Amino acid sequence: MSYKVRYLLPLLSVLALVALAGGAVLAQGGAIAYGETVTGSLTDAAPFLIYQFQGNAGDQITAYAFGTTPDLLLSLSLLGPNQQQLALSTRDLFGAEVGVARISYRLASLGPHFLMVSNITGQPGDFVLRLDRSSAVDGGELPADTPIGLDIPANALPTTLTFVVPESGSALAVESMTPGFGFLAQLYGPTGELLAGLTGAALPGAGLTLAPGAYALTIEAMLPDTTGSIQVLLSSSGQLPGQATPVPPPPAATPIPSVCTASSSQNVNVRSGPGTNYPAIGSLFVGSSLEVTGRNSDGSWVVTNFNGRQGWISTGVITLQGPCSALPFVVPPPSPTPIPPTLTPTPSAPIVQFWSTVPDGAILAPGTCVRFYWDTSNVQAVYFDGNPVVGTNTPTNGGGTERCPMTTTTYTLRVIYPDGSTHDFNIPVGVS
């Protein structure tokens, strides 16, 4: 199974879930749980939506966001309990799908986390958001310079190994010991981000050189119903078995750059204007560079052509190379409307009202019809007489549900609160 097919399956399942759910939309964002799919709408009044979920230290999560409105390109951000940005994505770094923003991350702390969905181009539209957590078996700590073997049975959960790379650096090797047995290895870096996804129909082995820091490696079978053995080696020498010591090539003449370029040792935001109050429209990733075409008046921000749009990057987080001393001055765009200072949505308490046309203590003749009304807000689901119903059914909107009992009957309105708890509200109707 290819990588693209493997990670498209959850997205196809998302579309099926949305169709089954009738396209219910959380218009103001809200809560999202592991394994849950929600839909949302970005508007001029609400250019971004924030969803909160409860995370645990060590959770390996994957969040997908993609537009159901044509040409809608999304930006997906992961925020930690202190509302600091942990990850930002405008595409799927490990897949070829266009229009999918994907974040894979290993959480470092317990507490509420947040997913923020916004539109890169600013126009309104609808989107689908899904959050998943990978279940895994704790394989313990990976020792240095000692190969360990993993026997993977059919339909087994992934195994997670943790290890720390010292200041001198290390090399990591993952090898299949069973001919034809393919595996999937995912490496999470010191800050929780997914660094590498190694996969294939029958990948014999892979090796990586790692910088100092704490890592987590998750390994599973490429095809769930297959079995095989995997060997993992963490080499403190930075050299894998059978790997010859590299001989440095003779120094080559350094070419003189013809244009000014920007690069960075970390992933940094590209914004729509020279300031953090402007929205991010993408990222300059480690190992890549962008051509710089201008600057602001004091040189603290530079301008680049980012996918056909004017993008701005702070000079405090990048390295400029080439002829950058005579960049032309570019007039910044108008400042955007300030984003509200708090990102934490305040949950509202559930409200439930349930009443009928029967006076208290009244005894009715058999077959006398009674109308029931209810009005709810800030709840997950509502059931009347055992059947799912809408949350509002009042006389003011022409509502009301009629029942004509032949015997004394108690009618129940069952309400599911946002925390999943169930609450029953009863109205008995006496018949004689």
What does the secondary structure layout of this molecule look like, with pairings?
Layout: H1 3-20, E1 30-31, E2 36-42, E3 48-55, E4 60-67, E5 74-79, E6 85-89, E7 100-106, E8 111-119, E9 125-134, E10 137-141, E11 148-152, E12 159-165, E13 170-176, E14 183-188, E15 194-198, E16 205-210, E17 213-221, E18 228-235, E19 261-263, E20 268-271, E21 280-284, E22 290-295, E23 301-306, E24 309-314, E25 319-321, E26 351-356, E27 363-364, E28 370-377, E29 381-384, E30 387-389, E31 392-393, E32 401-403, E33 409-416, E34 422-431
Per CATH, the architecture of the largest domain is Sandwich
- The CATH class of the largest domain turns out to be Mainly Beta
What count of structural domains?
4
* Helical segment count: 1
- Tell the overall outline: flat
Portion in strands: over 45%
Class based on secondary structure composition and strand pairing: mainly beta
Distance between termini? Answer: 68 Å
Main pleated sheet: 5 strands, mixed
How would you state the average pLDDT, rounded?
81
